[in-house]
Amino acid sequence: MKLVLASNNAHKLEEIGKIMSDLGMEVVPQKDIGGFIEPDETGETFEENSYIKAKAVMDACGLPTIADDSGLMVDALGGAPGVYSARYGGEQNHTDRDRLEYLLSQMEAVPEGKRDARFVTVITMLMPDGQKIVARGECPGRILFVPQGENGFGYDPIFYCPEAGCSFAQLSPQEKNRISHRARALKVFVEKIKEVKEL
User: Fold this and answer.
1) H or E segment at 47?
2) 107 lies in which domain range?
3) Which pLDDT value is given to residue 67?
4) Whether residue 156 lies in the annotated active site
5) Ordered strands of the 2-5 beta sheet
6) What CATH number does residue 77 fall under?
7) N or C: which end of the chain has fewer CB within 10 A?
């Protein structure tokens, strides 16, 4: 079965593609079916935005489609930046570093014991026959006071993962992929796919 990834992100394609190939599915980026579709992510939850992306691409190509939506949720900020993680702080924050520093500025008065956070990924797979599979993965941690590490992207340098004993940005890509929110969502997703196949 061919599955279209509602993204042209090479990292996502490699990570999701490897897992799905083990299930006998070929994952291709949306550009391979002639599209650079970027729907407005108007949802208020990761589930809603993941669905919006999958539905837009599936409607355009008529093939089974998989999409994900991810972000950082900080307890002290009421769950922000959440679904706005990639555009947190407004248009003046153009880069990952801008958004990271803006988040730290919002956390200046928050003490050590109140800095809990979690990365979240929701994966949605839609089939032309109306079938839908949704999986959510979370990785708990806390927000550091200063960035640590040079790897990763986004908020990785300020996200301390207790399971790893360091920030996400101090992990190798292989180590991060083993414990990340996306890896956890994919694990749940695979189990749900297997259940469907057995029906």
Assistant:
1) helix 46-61
2) 2-198
3) 94
4) no
5) 26-29, 2-5, 65-74, 116-126, 132-143, 159-161, 166-167
6) 3.90.950.10
7) C
